[in-house]
Amino acid sequence: MNQFKQMFLMHLKMTFREKQAWFWGLFFPVILMLIFMSIFADSDDEFEASVAVVEENPNEVSTAIYDQIEVIPVLNVDHQLESQSEAEQLIIDQEVTAAIVLPQTDEDSDVLLMVNAEDEQSTTTQVVSGVLSNIVQQMNLQVVGASETYAVDFQTVTTGEHELSYQDFLLTGLIALAVAQGGLFGMIDLVDMRRKGLIKRLRMTPVNMSLFGLSDMMMRLLFSVIQIFVLALIGVFLFNATLHINVLGLVVLFLVGALSFNAIGYFISSFSKTTEAYMGVANIFSFLMMFLSGIFFPVEMMPEWLHPVAHVLPLTYFAEGLRDTMVYSIGIESSAIWFHIGVMALWGVVAYIIGSWLYRRKSIVATR
Amino acid sequence: MRVLEVNHLKKSFGAVQAVKDVSFQVEQGEVFTIIGPNGAGKTTTLEMIEGLVPPDQGDIKFGELNWKKNGDAIKKKIGVQPQLSAMFDLLTPSEHLQLFASFYDKNRPEEEILKTVNLTEHKDKQVRNLSGGQRQRLAIGLAMIGDPEIIFLDEPTTGLDPQARRNLWDIILRLKRLDKTIILTTHYMDEAEQLSDRVCIIDQGEIVTIDQPDALIKRLTVEREVRLSFLEHEEAAINSEKVLTELSVVSRIDRDSTQLKIWTEDPEYTLLELFNYTKQQNYQVDQISIREMSLEDVFIEFTGKEWRD
């Protein structure tokens, strides 16, 4: 027991004193989060277009249309003008996206939409013209005294009880990434210890090597828990992420995930003779996963042909699982969670088996 | 009491026969030194005994224990300081000792070890900030923390300054007084001569000879080298040389201006004759010395190789 305590203390002190561990484990994910949150977190604001309305000669029809325009949230009426030429100038100066010229008399039923020629094909123009057509259409219906036969109902659908905002999406993705990288890069110690002859040195003593490995693993899990806490706190308090955590689900998923990524790191260490070789392989794997596993943007946004890759990588399932347990409060009663856990466990077990087979085959310890 | 017995060890690495046939026994409380040129098979022999490298042939017994059946029991009885001792750069000597202490059932107190290897002042410095000598001393400390009965020291003083070397000799002699058995390899002949109860010379994977250092030196030819120089001109040296050549005990004389090097079987008689002559001629002798035979001469005699430090 004292042996385990001493080993754990040793790993704790070494991790604490290793600046690289802090940088890659905490500082780097936090920076990534700050950058991505700042860039993308505001982009889901509502669509708005500023328009100018030209009412040269107020009349019944023009007032009716104007009232309709004002209540539509996407159209911000920034300027009320009386001449078309003023509106033209505003459009040229790009002060407004579009100008709407209302009918001059009761009999005139035409509404004119003016936009900058550069923007003719832009989304904003499409939207404004769509909205405007809709208003005119309504007016037409009113005039003939008909009611709408067909209407579009709007409804949102999500997989869970709670909606996933980009903040929540990115936060859970980054936590998954941080834990995964901790495992993936963490085993560099093993390569370094072997290269320096520390493993050989330890084997000259009656040390219990499996206890040594276990204490190392405990230390890593502890570090990952710290990562989760720090990232979650920053996400929640700085960027208003909303978390609904299913604790049991999260703990199970986290344990299997962290162990699996450590096993992958162990596998890489089994065939890497130098720390440089290790870093190379770990980096390739890490980059692949970072961009193909739905960390910064959803997998669905990627081209179709890349989807199979995403559906093989373990980080996809870890990130998905963390979203389920941390945002949707889905627990171990859900089969989806067990599917995520299963895929990760498969990776972990296969990586561990091949890794230890390679270690045995080369009997690394005897290398001089 | 015999604590270690090594019989007919053999080990090859590919086509290279590193150890051809090595057998010896070590008694409790002995300082047993293995010397030999680089690549003679010292470290390989040691690593086989320490259980790091399995021998191709031969057996190793620690009393009744052997590596196949009692690996853990042997590890508890031995302490090893490897030639290049790996350590945790981010841990301090004190932390190293605590960690290694936890591996063993019994320990020597941490403060005692720190004091013995002279690291008390540096016990809270991270290892990456220690000097080569300090690291080396920590490595020796780690070999002692489990209170072992047999301590293996592989070139413990290589790279140490003369003062640190002396300190280490004290450590080794202190361990010997505690009735520990010490198996040592070294590059320094004076060290082997000073510390060892017995010396084992290995060359090309084979034992050349094993004996007490004094006995080995005595086994060399009785001829000794006497050096002297005269205050006067060369004439004194030339004339003395003529007189000495006539003595039957003198086998060879080298003269360099006023200096003479005389090889003789009987230094006492040779000098007596010489002084009689110089007194008669009133020559003044400036310096005189009789060179002691050292282990280095033994080494050269047995291996036919110059000693390289």
TrEMBL record, chain A:
Keywords: Cell membrane, Membrane, Transmembrane, Transmembrane helix, Transport. Residues 129-362 form the ABC transmembrane type-2 domain. It is a multi-pass membrane protein. PROSITE patterns: ABC_TM2. It comes from the Bacteria. It is found in: Cell membrane; Membrane. The chain crosses the membrane at residues 21-41, 169-191, 221-241, 247-268, 280-299, 337-359. Its main location: membrane. Belongs to the ABC-2 integral membrane protein family. PANTHER family: DOXORUBICIN RESISTANCE ABC TRANSPORTER PERMEASE PROTEIN DRRC-RELATED, TRANSPORT PERMEASE PROTEIN. This is Transport permease protein. It comes from Alkalibacillus filiformis. The lineage of its organism: Bacteria, Bacillati, Bacillota, Bacilli, Bacillales.
UniProtKB/TrEMBL annotation, chain B:
Residues 4-229 form the ABC transporter domain. One of its GO terms (molecular function) is ATP binding. Belongs to the ABC transporter superfamily. The keyword Nucleotide-binding applies. InterPro entries: AAA+_ATPase (IPR003593), ABC_transporter-like_ATP-bd (IPR003439), ABC_transporter-like_CS (IPR017871), ABC_transporter_ATP-binding (IPR050763), P-loop_NTPase (IPR027417). SUPFAM superfamilies: P-loop containing nucleoside triphosphate hydrolases. The lineage of its organism: Bacteria, Bacillati, Bacillota, Bacilli, Bacillales. It holds the Pfam family ABC_tran. PROSITE patterns: ABC_TRANSPORTER_1, ABC_TRANSPORTER_2. This is ABC-2 type transport system ATP-binding protein. Keywords: ATP-binding, Nucleotide-binding, Transport.
